[in-house]
UniProtKB/TrEMBL annotation, chain A:
The lineage of its organism: Bacteria, Pseudomonadati, Pseudomonadota, Alphaproteobacteria, Rhodobacterales. GO terms for molecular function: transmembrane transporter activity. Pfam families: BPD_transp_2 (PF02653). The keyword Nuclease does not apply. It is found in: Cell membrane. The chain crosses the membrane at residues 44-59, 90-112, 119-137, 157-178, 210-229, 250-278, 290-308. GO terms for cellular component: plasma membrane. The gene is alsC. CDD domains: TM_PBP1_transp_AraH_like (cd06579). It comes from Pseudooctadecabacter jejudonensis. Coiled coil: none annotated. This is D-allose transport system permease protein AlsC. PANTHER family: ABC TRANSPORTER PERMEASE PROTEIN YPHD-RELATED-RELATED (PTHR32196), RIBOSE IMPORT PERMEASE PROTEIN RBSC (PTHR32196:SF72). It is a multi-pass membrane protein.
TrEMBL record, chain B:
The gene is rbsA_2. The lineage of its organism: Bacteria, Pseudomonadati, Pseudomonadota, Alphaproteobacteria, Rhodobacterales. GO terms for cellular component: plasma membrane. GO terms for molecular function: ATP binding; ATP hydrolysis activity. PANTHER family: CARBOHYDRATE TRANSPORT ATP-BINDING PROTEIN MG119-RELATED, D-ALLOSE IMPORT ATP-BINDING PROTEIN ALSA-RELATED. Residues 17-253, 264-507 form the ABC transporter domain. Keywords: ATP-binding, Cell membrane, Hydrolase, Membrane, Nucleotide-binding, Repeat, Sugar transport, Translocase, Transport. This is Ribose import ATP-binding protein RbsA.
Length: 326, 515
């Protein structure tokens, strides 16, 4: 029973392949490399946010404020760009990540120090963040013509044939792969979600770990905020409305246990890609995009049912003979 | 099989419940193999067996939680199917669990009558009658609280009384008590015994599950022994000796002999000065030397675990310092404690348990990651080396250290947890009730291991409520009472009488060790 072959990820990858084959039978152009690259690029924000959400869910929390955080950061950097068009992009990126991290830290502090349930905290901050966008923007839009060309061009810039937006997702995936497997923080995240009591006795501060998980999730939401606003060249109160649910859905489909402690970077990425493929394929094969909701919903239920079946305990090994044959 | 005792003649009465050839398999595992169990009216039957003998599975089958794969359950001679917990309750079978399954936010009366509350003609719950009936039941069992009390305000012993009242309220004929005394103090246990007598006199059949032999011989009329999921023997308690029962249970002869503790006691490792907490303990002063096993004895609620949690940095003491190897160290968090070489294996198995979802080697290295990291990155090779070293020392049986810890058997999981602590190379290891709720065979293994640790120069603090264990294992014993140290005894002064006297606060003018 080795974990050399992660069963869940393999099945999900196979499901994505089957989906691609089905789509290509109706529209062969969908699986052309250039189109697949487009689909990946379109899914990049979801991948980045799903990885942040994964860390939070692994610690037995949930972050519903990611989309609002994204929208608020996006608005702030857009307004900064309007006020100071000459500000270099690296500074904009730093501001976005920092601002997102601060909003994540607010969630984290409330969960850590006041022990408020994460769902309540982030439901509250979600509303507050959206409210703040309205306050700072007066409900007005920041449109493309007000933004500097450098600001809007950045995510589209191509490096080695892929746009920066795609690279952002790829780099995040690599960093998370290293973080989860090779750092103490990554290990603590699994320990806190797997058995918080045991984690305490091991010397891991459960609250502090959850706090940093929220900071990570917030920082990624901030990063995505800039990428989103610059890519679509518009910022307003309601951008990415409801996107937090899609992010949570990607995690759940990717096999991240909502009870914490179980999940993988590969799973979260595949979950996001699955949703991305569905979303991009439906218009191509002439299915109303409204079906997308039903399909993602079904995928979530199937994924959860599958996970709870495979995770069902096998009962204790009581007979000595049974233990010997193990 | 060493001993086979001919089944004793059954009592004149016929059993209320009779399980016959009951088999229960889980995928790939036989938890029960054609077992039989008879419960007679007005008699206490003790179900005896080591951990994993199938006792809990039997309880779950009797209460309709599990379905047997084969065999028959008869009630008053008629075969029945207990498909749901409700069926079991309709059949008059009720269980009082180790951890009482009650609702903290409801009143005592609501807890007693939940699911079968008396109704008014409109079908609403008849509160007045419910409280009236509940009060009558509580008086009957001598409960010292009212039916209006919130359950959350009651202690464990009183919660047990509520569970018993609930059993009586459904007119149960069969009462299953699963280790009911595990968390009770001496006085509370005596009260429970009286209650069991009351239930017996009312003609109820009682299934009593316990690891404590004195208890079994005190209140049981009959015994049934299971081993490894199979029936071994049953009969009258009066016809059997304690030793024979142990032999049947473990399938081998186990002597309750504690390992020779010929370890050398060295210099002072830990000195605790004036530890105090606003509500839980005060004036805790003691020293612990290298290679010493220091026992902490006291009644449940004497503040032993509370103090240990403060020493380990989980709660904050209001006063006091602790000196480790002669240096004053401040322990504000468990991480500080681990860094100072103190580790704590808590009482609660869920809390001390392995982290399911992490593979074996990651469980073992979890508290030692500082040692296996270079520049903030974990070195997997180093981790494997450390994990391999300690899993070999403990003879851990696993296909691979990369295996998920959840796939290991309970005993091997426990080894993973111990390996985890030893890998930190601690100086002081605190074991809180290390043998509570485990069978005699495993107990001996834990004791041996403890002696081995001390022989290697580790200092052990053992919190235990079992007098033979405290006396057999400790070099020195500190007795706590009401949050304070009542006495410190060593050598020949460590007698059961001395310990009990100090723990209970009986002040007899003897020259025994004074506080």
């Amino acid at each position: 029973m080795s974990r050399l072959i992660p069963v869940r990820e393999t099945i999900l990858a196979a499901a994505i392949l089957v989906l691609l084959l089905l789509i290509s039978s109706r529209f062969a152009g969908f699986i052309a490399p250039s189109n697949l690259a487009n689909v990946f690029n379109d899914t990049a924000p979801l991948i980045i946010l799903a990885l942040g959400q994964m860390v939070v869910i692994l610690t037995r929390c949930i972050d519903l404020s990611v989309a609002a955080n994204l929208a608020l950061t996006g608005m702030v950097v857009a307004m900064i760009n309007v006020a100071m068009p000459g500000l270099p992009i690296p500074v904009i990126l730093a501001v976005a990540v920092l601002l997102g991290a601060v909003m994540g830290a607010v969630n984290g502090i409330l969960v850590w120090k006041l022990s408020i349930p994460p769902i309540v905290v982030t439901l509250g901050t979600m509303t507050i963040f959206r409210g703040i966008i309205f306050l700072i923007s007066d409900g007005k839009w920041v449109n493309s013509h007000e933004m500097s060309p450098a600001f809007t061009a950045f995510p589209r810039m191509e490096l080695l044939g892929l746009p920066v937006l795609s690279w952002a997702a790829i780099i995040t995936i690599i960093l998370f792969g290293i973080m989860m497997a090779r750092t103490q923080f990554g290990r603590s995240i699994f320990a806190v979600g797997g058995n918080p009591h045991a984690a305490v006795y091991t010397g891991i501060d459960v609250g502090r770990t959850q706090f940093w998980a929220f900071v990570v999730s917030g920082a990624l939401a901030g990063l995505t905020g800039y990428l989103w606003v610059s890519r679509f060249a518009v910022a307003y109160v309601d951008i990415a409305g409801g996107f937090e649910l899609e992010v949570v859905a990607a995690c759940v489909i990717g096999g991240i246990s909502i009870a914490g402690g179980i999940g993988s970077v590969g799973g979260a990425v595949l979950g996001a890609i699955f949703l991305g493929v569905v979303k991009n394929a439906l218009p191509v094969v002439n299915i109303s995009p409204f079906w997308q909701l039903a399909i993602s919903g079904s995928a979530i239920l199937i994924a959860v049912a599958f996970n709870s079946r495979s995770g069902r305990t096998k009962g204790r090994i009581i007979l000595k003979s049974a233990e010997a044959t193990q | 099989m060493t001993t086979r005792i001919a089944p004793a003649p059954a009592p004149d009465v016929s059993p209320i419940v009779s399980m016959d050839m009951i088999t229960k398999t889980f995928p790939g595992v036989k938890a029960l193999d054609q077992v039989k169990l008879d419960l007679f009216p007005g008699q206490v039957t003790a179900l005896v067996g080591e951990n994993g003998a199938g006792k809990s599975t039997t309880v779950k089958i009797l209460t309709g939680i599990y379905q047997p794969n084969g065999g028959t359950i008869r009630i008053d001679g008629d075969p029945v199917v207990l498909a749901t917990p409700d069926d079991a309750s309709q059949a008059g079978i009720t269980a009082i669990h180790q951890e009482t399954v009650l609702f903290d936010e409801l009143s005592v009366a609501e807890n007693i009558y939940i699911g079968h509350a008396p109704r008014t003609r409109l079908g609403l719950i008849d509160k007045a009658r419910m409280h009236q009936d509940a009060s009558a039941l509580l008086t009957e069992i001598g409960a010292p609280f009212s039916s209006h009390t919130q359950l959350r305000d009651l202690g464990i012993a009183n919660k047990h009384l509520v569970a018993i009242a609930r059993a009586l309220s459904v007119d149960a004929r069969v009462v299953i008590m699963d280790e009911p005394t595990a968390a009770l103090s001496h006085k509370e246990i005596e009260e429970l015994y009286e209650l069991v007598e009351t239930l017996k006199s009312q003609g109820k059949a009682i299934l009593f599950i316990s690891h404590k032999f004195d208890e079994i011989f005190r209140i049981a009329d009959r015994y049934t022994v299971f081993r490894d999921g199979a029936f071994v023997a049953d009969g009258q308690i009066s016809d059997i000796a304690e030793n024979d029962l142990v032999k049947m249970m473990v399938g081998r002869s186990v002597e309750q002999i504690f390992p020779q503790t010929n370890h050398e006691i060295g210099e002072e490792v830990l000195k605790v000065v004036g530890y105090a907490h606003p509500t839980e303990f005060a004036d805790i002063n003691f020293t612990l030397n290298k290679g010493e096993i220091l026992g902490f004895y006291g009644l449940v609620g004497a503040g032993r675990s509370e103090f240990m949690q403060a020493l380990f940095g989980i709660t904050k003491p209001s006063k006091g310092v602790c000196r480790i190897n002669g240096n004053i160290e401040v322990i504000r968090s468990p991480a500080d404690a681990v860094a100072n070489g103190i580790v704590y294996v808590p009482e609660d198995r869920g809390k001390q348990g392995a982290i399911i979802g992490l593979p074996i080697f990651q469980n073992i290295t979890l508290p030692s990651l500082d040692k296996t990291s270079r520049k903030g990155f974990l070195k997997l090779a180093e981790e494997f080396k450390l994990a391999r070293e300690y899993s070999q020392r403990l003879d851990l049986r696993a296909a691979s250290l990369d295996q998920d810890v959840g796939n290991l058997s309970g005993g091997n999981q426990q080894k993973v947890v111990i390996a985890k602590w030893l890998a930190t190379q601690p100086q002081v290891i605190i074991l809180d009730e290390p043998t509570k709720g485990i069978d005699i065979g495993s107990k001996a293994a834990v004791h041996e291991f403890m002696a081995e640790l001390a022989a290697q120069g580790l200092s052990v603090i053992m919190v235990s409520s079992e007098i033979p264990e405290v006396i057999g294992m400790s070099d020195r014993v500190i007795v706590m009472r009401d949050g304070r140290i009542a006495a410190e005894v060593e050598g020949d002064d460590m007698t059961p009488e001395t310990l009990v006297r100090h723990a209970a606060g009986i002040t007899t003018p003897t020259e025994g060790a004074a506080a």
